[in-house]
Amino acid sequence: xxxxxxRKEKLKSKKLIEILFQKGKSVKSFPLRLIYxxxxxxxxxxxxxxxxxPKRIVKTAVQRNRIKRLMREAYRKxxxxxxxxxxxxxxxxxxxxxxxxxxxxxxFKAMEKLMGKFKEKETWEN
Length: 126
Fold this sequence. Notes:
Blueprint: H1 14-23, E1 25-29, E2 32-39, E3 47-52, H2 61-78, E4 89-96, H3 104-125
């Protein structure tokens, strides 16, 4: 089981992020929201993932950065839940949706639930 979150797995393309927000589908598990879109991936990576904490919701940069760090770690530990053998690549954007700062355990459980909902929805659609 690969628990890395390397450079190739990070979502950095502005064009892809724009398309993701325009055409992507979403799944929610409080306080997280996952926007996803199947993509054609040239880097042979199953998921390209980005995390975001809106400035409108969490005011201070210190808190935003801490939440993003915790979200990346929770994703890294739970991404095994969504890996599939079909070879379909996805672009993910995980958004934090509450002004209340949450601890790692709560975020970890929410991420676990979110990945489960995505897996359910993905298998339902295919």
